[in-house]
Amino acid sequence: MPDNPLIIQSDLTVLVELRSPRYAEARDALAVFAELVKSPEHIHTYRITPLSIWNACAAGMKPKAILATLQNFARYEVPAVVTTKVTDWASRYGKLQLVRRKNKLVLELKDPKLKTLLLEEKSVRQFFTELSESNAASPAFEIYPDHRGLLKQALIKFGYPLEDIAGYREGKAFDITLRSETAREKMPFALRDYQEEAVAQYHAGGSARGGSGVIVLPCGAGKTIVGLASMAQVGARTLILTTNTTSARQWVAEILDKTNVAAEDVGEYTGNQKRICPVTVATYQILTWRESRDDDFRHLHLFNDSDWGLIIYDEVHLLPAPVFQITAGLQARRRLGLTATLVREDGREEDVFALIGPKKADVPWKVLENKGWIAQAECHEMRVSLAEDLRMPYAIAPKRNKFRIASENPAKHAIVTRLVSHHSQEQILIIGMYVDQLKALSEELEVPLITGSLSQKRRDVLFNSFRGGELRVLVVSKVANFAVDLPDAAVAIQVSGTFGSRQEEAQRLGRILRPKGGANRAWFYSLVTADTVEQDFALKRQMFLCEQGYDYQIIDTEP
């Protein structure tokens, strides 16, 4: 079909033509089982991988539906090798199941031919012994309980994801009920339909098929609410892990505002205070703190200091390596990951799948925008010429230094001033990564600056002033990338970012997506020095948002 947008290639890449009248429909269907890898102006490139197929299968999609989608939108015939590989990868999900027989963890093989493969694979073989009652028709192995997570990691790298339906340790019961009216403002409170569906898919009625997995929702769509509703479903002591103290305190505030949990039953475990309660909110930083590289992680004991029935990993795409390691030994406890994007810059998406669980729900950003649940956002890339006196230093600098010179281009300052003036009625965040650049902008605009060196107490004062409307413009560093609730922010001006970080771009747009009154609009401006390495990295940063349906309008700022 000449109007179809997909050109499917035998190397499992899919080219998508943006001019096709069926582009938007195809993009949304393709995103369920493929990953965007390049997004220039006219042709986007997706890649189908084993992990993308397994996530789709875990969410209930059948291989026939995947192939039907490809055939429906393909301009030319789908290559036979694509059909073969998709069918093979999809068929592997569910062939290995972890179940519980009496008091034993048992690996069941749905295909007897896999037995020889597993026994010959050294990375897998070390984690089990053959059951005495096993037979040729129904081979099975006993798993050492401490190796449950390690086996999952080994098997997914081997190419056979393990479906874990062995159940969970229930944890100590603790009643958590959602309010029908918020405590602070006495406003009616209820879950939105997509939040209810996400919780239902995660919990699965309390069965062993639920209880571990990841919910993907855009910033501003209520991931915290999904977490609270999951806590209510599980009804047990809960440990919540998040990115920083500001986020931890926002979780505490939401728990007290929207559930029946009393203040004395909610503990904060951060650098400032360390209370372990039936519901405890901790930061990744405190869990991974140690005095030196050779020292032990002194706070990882928190995972075992209470009989947790649920562990929530907020911003799961940022999970640090030591927490991955401890999570490998926590497979008997229910786990919930929350994120706006499963993209990890370190490439450990497979570990999230194996140790936290597969993707249970992923609602496209544009779907929620069209329903008014998040703000309608316009994305602009503002291209700025390199200042004249920096052209020679840029030309002779190493590549890494080139990026910093381009990012800190002082010609951006005039554009920031113009944008702040243009949006004089909106609340504005100016976001960057280089402190000297941010200090200069803060001084020029005579507005406060928040960086990592600012005390938590002062940060809280400034964030509260911004929420309350006393501050209209705030300059922030990377500390505001994640889990900072600023509902009235409508404009984000990004002056510099972390190389080609896709998840950072998504998180920064997320700062301004919370629904607003009136026209419910938001504006995201990314200032990029033209014809430099910063422009190249900007293309990479924008990929995830392009996959979600956002278009970047390119604006040349020269007269």
Care to describe what's here?
By secondary structure, the chain is α/β, with parallel strands linked by helices. Helix content is 35%, strand content 20%. The chain has a seven-stranded parallel sheet with strand order 12-13-11-14-15-10-16, sandwiched between helices. A seven-stranded parallel sheet has the order 19-20-18-21-22-17-23, with helices on both faces. A five-stranded mixed sheet has the order 7-8-6-5-9, with helices on one face. The model has no long low-confidence stretch (mean pLDDT 89).
Please name the CATH topology of the largest domain.
Rossmann fold
Spatial strand sequence of the major β-sheet: 12-13-11-14-15-10-16
Number of extended strands: 23
Give the class from helix and strand content and strand pairing.
Answer: alpha/beta
Low-confidence stretches: none
State the major sheet.
7 strands, parallel
Going by CATH, what is the homologous superfamily of the largest domain? P-loop containing nucleotide triphosphate hydrolases
Count of discrete structural domains:
4
The CATH C-level name of the largest domain is Alpha Beta
Q: What would you report as the Rg, rounded to the nearest angstrom?
A: 25 Å
Specify the number of helices: 22
Helix content: 25-40%
Strand content: 15-25%
